[in-house]
Amino acid sequence: MELVIDIGNSKVKAAIFINNGIHKVFRSENADNDLKKEVRRFNIRSIIISTVRNDGEEMVGFWSDVAPVYLLDYRLPLPVSNLYETPKTLGNDRIAAVVGARFLFPAGPVLAIDAGTCITFDILTEDDVYLGGNIAPGIRLRFEAMHSFTHALPLVENYEIDRLYGRTTEESMSTGVVNGIAGEIDSVIRKYEEEFPGLKTVICGGELRYFVNHLKKEIFANQNLVLLGLHKILKFNEQKRS
User: Is 93 a catalytic residue?
Assistant: First the structure.
């Protein structure tokens, strides 16, 4: 059994893998003793950690009494070639998502979209070469920007929409943001499909549910995409050591 831990800005998501499948998923606020207590019930033989909180070395030390730990950063070998020109600044979740997309689709080019605080697009060629991608503001950032940089617009908390247009100011903001993001994603996917024939697109992320039904392009949704990618990176490094 292997443990993968994805530490985001506000949430922690972890999973136990048996062979190549997810056995159990954990969600918590922090990768702390409560989570450690939960996973100790399993026979963990290796761990990989991805974190955005600048606490990587601390997390390695904290989890090292459970099993050997790999920390995903720019120095860790990857099962794909990385052509990103600034690998130190590349978000771990971005590279893990695109590796996860490759796990789901073993052949052909793949595009991984992660709809979180920011919306990221990351492209992997059919030859397993990571080229880079795009970063755009997510739903919450767009609502916060409209509220912060205007005098009259409120801070919208309800992102659910079921129509094209709004009949109140808040509804108009919601329809503008959600439909705008959906159109933006459809457009970006179309451009990638033109450059990479046979492209498969996979989307994940905490804000996915607000606009996935408004997309026109055919895509595959998998909320465990980053976890799948982390596990593939972990297995790749274990094989290199054996």
Answer: yes
